[in-house]
């Protein structure tokens, strides 16, 4: 049964919207019909009131037609037994005039059935239900009877208006619900696409919902698989090339040692050292995240303090500011290379470097590495995080390096589920801010 119902559900978004509209109209009509019925039976007592008035009028006519007092008393007793709510009683003998001070004329729905020869007035002292009615028979005998229902009040809205109003309410409610369902799927879909990165570990997009969304999800899943495959193949190729280059570089270094010209030998060795450094930097940048060692809990404050002391011992102006002990889960070697790159970058473009660690109990760990150099213009900072970007001459007169330091630090931060941003420093230069989750 469930499979049969599922087979009737349209695959496309347009079909689902049409079906939801039809369901909206049908449901709103059912709600309106039910409310009209409730209005007729509960909020409009005209039919019950008419039947009750007819019953009371028939009893009064029987009493008026009875030949004697004894028969009339029997009719009154029988009427009270069958319907105690009316509380019928004889209050005045025949031929005795009785006037109800300030009495109001009984409602039309009662006087119509009584006839013109019987006069009915409503006691003004009974303002709430049931209303007390005094009836004067043709022979001037007076009766008192309770009318359990008040006169009908006109309904606030007629059935047609009720139908239109509740149909509109039902349609709007169901359309809002349907729109939220479809928009939620699209929003989740867009968020999954926006958060995708080739170096991240993401679940496949759900291939469910309307046919259009399923088609796009399948296409994007395949495209993401192709992108992952291309990135992995590129990484494997460049890594292999980098490893293979080490062997000829080593042979060239050994052969250079036998060059008799000292100037030429030193120049060649210097170039070979630069090539080795470039190979190591590229291999560090292209390291596969899945091959990284597991995270270890390290005293981050002591780690940063030790790095600062190492530079201070060599005469570099590097100081650490922050707590004495803060633990964090990091990959120590990779994180050491990233922070070292940032410190070297600060000292290369400035004369002083300051490392600041901020550790809030309910927030991430924040590491600021600042310098007093010329800084980087705000519109170039995002670009400077890309590989092989070394900036322009305004940053430094020297063009040493390969432009991989910031890129390696950014990759390391992402591999730790953190971020790296470049900002203005209070020291006048650049501030590289690393954030790490606890």
UniProtKB/TrEMBL annotation:
Keywords: ATP-binding, Cell inner membrane, Cell membrane, Kinase, Membrane, Nucleotide-binding, Phosphoprotein, Transferase, Transmembrane, Transmembrane helix, Two-component regulatory system. It comes from the Bacteria. Residues 180-232 form the HAMP domain. GO terms for molecular function: ATP binding; phosphorelay sensor kinase activity. SUPFAM superfamilies: ATPase domain of HSP90 chaperone/DNA topoisomerase II/histidine kinase, Homodimeric domain of signal transducing histidine kinase. This is histidine kinase. The keyword Kinase applies. It catalyses: ATP + protein L-histidine = ADP + protein N-phospho-L-histidine. PANTHER family: SENSOR HISTIDINE KINASE ENVZ, SENSOR PROTEIN CREC. It is found in: Cell inner membrane. Residues 240-438 form the Histidine kinase domain.
């Amino acid at each position: 049964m469930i499979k049969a119902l599922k087979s009737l559900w349209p695959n496309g978004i347009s079909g689902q919207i049409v079906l939801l509209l039809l369901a909206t109209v049908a449901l709103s009509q059912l709600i309106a019909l039910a409310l009209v019925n409730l209005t007729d039976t509960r909020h409009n007592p005209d039919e019950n009131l008419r039947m009750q008035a007819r019953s009371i009028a028939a009893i009064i006519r029987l009493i008026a037609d009875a030949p004697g007092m004894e028969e009339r008393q029997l009719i009154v007793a029988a009427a009270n037994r069958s319907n105690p709510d009316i509380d019928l009683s004889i209050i005045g003998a025949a031929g005795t005039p009785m006037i109800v001070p300030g009495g109001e004329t009984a409602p039309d729905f009662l006087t119509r059935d009584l006839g013109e020869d019987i006069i009915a007035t409503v006691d003004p002292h009974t303002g709430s239900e049931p209303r007390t009615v005094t009836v004067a028979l043709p022979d001037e005998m007076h009766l008192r009877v309770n009318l359990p229902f008040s006169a009908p009040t006109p309904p606030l809205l007629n059935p047609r208006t009720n139908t239109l109003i509740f149909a509109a309410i039902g349609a709007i409610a169901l359309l809002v619900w349907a729109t939220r369902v479809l928009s939620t799927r699209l929003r989740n879909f867009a968020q999954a696409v926006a958060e995708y990165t080739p170096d991240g570990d993401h679940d496949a997009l759900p291939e469910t919902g309307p046919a259009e969304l399923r088609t796009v999800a399948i296409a994007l899943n395949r495209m993401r698989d192709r992108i992952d495959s291309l990135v992995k193949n590129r990484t494997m190729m460049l890594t292999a090339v980098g490893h293979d280059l080490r062997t000829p570089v080593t042979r060239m270094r050994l052969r250079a040692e036998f060059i008799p010209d000292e100037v030429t030998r030193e120049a060649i060795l210097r170039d070979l050292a630069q090539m080795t450094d470039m190979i190591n930097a590229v291999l560090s940048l292209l390291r596969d995240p899945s091959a990284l060692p597991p995270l270890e809990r390290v005293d981050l404050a002591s780690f940063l303090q030790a790095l600062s002391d190492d530079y201070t011992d060599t005469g570099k102006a590097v100081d650490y500011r922050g707590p004495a002990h803060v633990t964090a889960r990091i990959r120590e070697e990779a994180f050491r290379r990233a922070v070292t790159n940032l410190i070297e970058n600060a000292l290369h473009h400035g004369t002083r470097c300051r490392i600041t660690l901020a550790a809030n109990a309910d927030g991430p760990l924040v590491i600021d590495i600042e310098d007093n150099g010329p800084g980087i213009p705000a519109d170039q900072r995002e670009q400077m995080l890309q590989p092989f970007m070394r900036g322009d001459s305004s940053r430094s007169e020297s063009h040493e390096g390969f432009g991989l330091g910031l890129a390696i630090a950014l990759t390391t931060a992402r591999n730790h589920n953190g971020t790296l941003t470049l900002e203005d420093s209070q020291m006048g230069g650049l501030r590289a801010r690393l954030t790490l989750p606890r």
